[in-house]
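Researcher: Let's try something more involved. This one mixes different molecule types, so please make sure each is placed in the same coordinate frame as the others.
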Amino acid sequence: MKTIIDDIRARFSVEWEHEQRADLAQIGVAPGTVVPLLTWMKLHTPFVQLNHLSVVDWLEDGEFQLTYLLTDPHGHRSLMVCTRIPREEATMESVHELWPQAVTYEQEINEMFGIHFPGSPRQGVPFILEGWDDLPPMRRDFDTVAYMHAHHPSRPGREHVDPRVYVGKVFGERGYLHDDD
Amino acid sequence: MTTTETLRRRVQLWFGPQHPGITGNMSVQAWLEGDTLTQGITHVGYLHRAFEKLMERRKFIQSFPIVCRICVPEPDTNEYLLAAALEELSGLDREVPEKALWIRTLVLEMSRLAAMLQVLGGHVGSMGLGVVPNWTYTLRDYVLDRFEELTGARVYHMYTVFGGVRRDLPEGFAERMETEVLAKIEAKLPVIDNAIFDSSVFRKRAIGVGVVPEEWADEMGISGPVVRAMGIPRDTRKDFPYLKYPELDFEVVTTTGSDIYARAWIRRQEIAQSVDLIRQILRRMPTEGPYCAKLPNMLTWTIPPGQTYVRAEASRGEMGYYVVTDGSDKMRRVHVRGPSYVHGVSLLERLIPGTNIADLSPLMVSLQTCPPEIER
Amino acid sequence: MSLKNTLAPFSAWMQAFSKPFTVPDEPGVRPGAPRYRGWHINDRETCIGCGTCAEICQNVAIDMVPVDEPTKGDSGLRPKVDYGRCCWCALCVDVCPSGSLAMSNEYVWVDHDGDAFRYTPGVDEKPWDGAELGWRKDEGFDIVDHERVPMGHLDPEERIHTWAEVVVGYTEEEARREAARCVECGLCVAACPAHMHIPDYIAAIRDGDDVRALNVIYDNNSMPEMCGKVCTRRCESVCSIGVNGDPLAIRWLKRYVTERFDDLKSVLDVDVERVGEGRKIAVIGGGPSGITVAYYLAIRGFEVTIHEALPQLGGATFFGIPKYRFPMPSLEKQIKLLEDAGVKIVTNHRVEGDELRRMLEENDAVFIGTGLMKPYRLGAEGEDLPGVVYALDLLRDKNIGREVEVGERVVVVGGGNVAIDAARVSRRLGAEVTIAYRRRIVDMPADDEEIEDAEAEGVEIIPQAIPLRVERTDDGRLDFVWGPAEMVPSDRGRPRPKLIEGVEHHMVVDRVIVAIGQSADHSWMPPDIAEKVADAKGWITVDHNGMTGHRGIFAGGDLVNDTADAISAIADGLRAVEGIQRFLGILPEREETEPEIPVITVR
Amino acid sequence: MQFDSIEEILDFAIGKEMEAHDMYMDIAGKVKRPGLEKTFLELAQMELGHKARLEQVKAGDLSGFAAGEVQNLKISDHLVDVKPHPNMDYQEALLFAMKAEQRAHDLYVDLARATSDPGLRELFKGLAKEELKHKLFFETEYDDVILEGN
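Model: All components are placed in one shared frame. Result:
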């Protein structure tokens, strides 16, 4: 794995690297580096396979992380290429020209996270959802519980008593450092 | 060209989601010229339950009852992979006891066996030979009986968790597995062979149909019986060894042709391989010792920040879990990469043009598409 | 295609005569596997209503519903399962701390009413109640941590030569790990006399937020560092994790947090109105109850003065508890907090004569927390011989720094914590120590850990030993004569020891230390006030405000409660803090209403 | 002591109970400790109860006697007797009461031993048992309150 990362380092700017397992390394690059890097890897290295493309929402940082997992199917090892893009008006270059199946990934990400891949064929075409009018649901700020309560009313008759609260109440738990206790 | 001529030339047809020939709840929006498909777009979403999203809002242990639902015929791969990913990220992987590794291998092989019996029946069922699925589903039910005995449930086992498995092997399990399952399968296989592989109906409809070009294998990440039917010996159990597979004696089954027949043949061979592997496992498994590591309090367990990708060979091909942790008691992100995501969408859509409408069902079965795995 | 291939499909016909695989669809024909996950069963008696099942249920299928009266150690709630949501994962069974919840292997149930599929196992009768088979908790699989992070102790050999603290304390990592074992059921809150917010501070410790933990702790306990070292920890006795394992080390966790901060005032976030400005409160007795009253009233602007007869505040925690359990700097830190809050402290001052009357006139209220200072006597012959001493005196003398000497051989009479303290102090003073106790070791009121520690330090315990008399030997030592006892059943309470006549054992010792018990002494009060306040045994009865039979006099601590521990004294103090404010019209009088059940309906 | 009839014995016993009653009343008036006066008044009241029971026996109703064995915890046996004094505390009050009941018991045992009339002997034994019961009451209280930690 070291060799391939050294090769990458010789050509591209790598922000960080981490060896997770003997057969799995991870590198971080700038968004602009991703497509040139992946193109080079597909054409000039054994890492020809795109296993998957995934997004992680780092809401607190205001960033999305895109993770491209490339595999060397004959050398039996994988490389995770990670990059971070701003969450606002999130846009990323498409890789569907390199791998046809990336269309589906990019379509789903577009739907679920609201990241736009200009030029990718099925952007804006619903993949899983139908008539969705809320935040892209895989974003961390989409509140599933609130959505559930708004769209699927609870079955009547459910009454739960939380033991922690109940016991405190019954036995007269009180606080004395704050007036509002 | 008249309107009638256009209509005759090009008809749009929704194949599924309610169709006996479809594999699970999905549909193919197909365009036909005559009875030949010119284009197909797959549609999923009928089973979407936002598993990945739900798991981001649940404690690690609470994700177990969820992941098994990602594949009905083969839930255990999901359970194992979630456990493996989180064990790797938490360092718990070093604590998993020997016996648990064996039981996990057993469970994975049992689930592969059950799933392959089901899909082998599906192969011929999709061509209208209803009797063979009756046999294979029955054989699958025998495997489920053992699952019920081992895990407490027939379909959603919820059995493999962090640190090991949830219960020990019951006494006499190995004997019952032999007499109630393996022997019965072996007795039936020749009959099945005769009814499938020797059948002129099957041969006519399977040989040379749905051929996947070999050059797609690498770039698309095609795996499982589909890639092995191209003659490529690619198998996660050998290429990225996990659990006790390195200690088991088996060869990767391959054949050539890359058509429906070849894929069915691979599955037939792998049923026999699974039977053999289960025998090996039960023979070599330690009888004593713990089946689960000592676990921390699962209600408060936190895992340090990290990300990993783990994979295992499901009956359909390479199943992978991409898991990101952020130091909290929940996953930041879990991405389930099932083989169907590629096989059932991109590959299927690439194979559809030129296919006869009657061959669409057998084609989908041969790709062994599992829609919940696409939607998660 | 060969002929064979053409004929092959017809081979299926051969199977037409084989035995069918199917079974008739009748109930009971095909029972679930022995560990099948079917309908729930629950043992209502064993269940403690901790709600951990509801907590772990990822489908929110379990509601906790009131079934029995809540008690200490049982919330009285029981799980009610909604099978519209249940996915039969059985995590509820595997997590169940009491082991009461299980699943039967029954899986067939037909009903036209959808709401029927929501029931309280063990409460609503079902045909599968008591089913032998089904999913049960298994020893080899545990998803809560039943093993406590061990606490380091000084080696017994080493500690009998030092007055250093025996308990080492948790490191940060150990504390976080121990705190992570908590399931936050809150049963401990009921058992704690002061109802400390235990799960909340444990969660804060687990999250690494010690400042928050400290604030949660001081919210209703102003002497928690003491509690963190010597509390009787009723909380731990009801810990749900303790039902089938080691209870959370609640005491040690409190100790960990409280020890981390030196300047308490700067860390504590006090946000109360100074409603007591211009009001004066006298506190008589500087023990835990008095300190509690003083602190929480002082931060509200009251002018509080504590009168203490001994040279140092702390009451029994100062003069009674040996320093290897509760070191002086820890106590001083707590007193510093009082001073910082503006409490006036008068030590070496025993209130006597008409002073109480004067105090009542000069103050808005008076709080009495003078404790039990008068030891019960042995009552046997020879008690007045030199060398027969009382444990309380011995411990006090040692703690205030007087020279204490016990000779080479000591017998301690008694089985409470005071007896153990006296024994362990005597060990440290170089003596061989025997404890003579009238009942069985299981009956000893002393803390189990204290008994173990004492034995580890070489203290010998003779149970069922009744002191008969003490005689002087020719060489000026003492002959402690005792007789063996048998345990006889009693109509009223526990079995009682009865002397077996005719057998006498002799033990030549230098000291006989009497640690039978102690009572209150009210001789310092004007008799007419004492008459209104106390009863014959010395107990003071108070109302729900902590007020005695005399208007304006509040009381708490060992005088009032029958548990005689510091945390109960603190609880009494808290009651008086509210009571005094109600008495003075600052808080409204408490309404006697049933507490509202906090129900969550949208689930 | 010599008794000629059952009536005489019972009168003697009733007199003893009255003596005890008067003694407790006397102490109650002297003790200073808060609440202890009440304790002694209660003890005095208890003796009146015993007296009433003996009067019932005299009237021919023997059911008032304790049946079966009475437990003797022997707690007071090895304790030093105390003299009533104004500054008595609860422990001393209990000690005093235990000892007084012990003495009454011993008296009836002696009397039972001294008489040759089997009927009288039974009556004395019954009375002794009654006193032992009283003692048990105090011993239990002593065991619970004073010896709680021992």
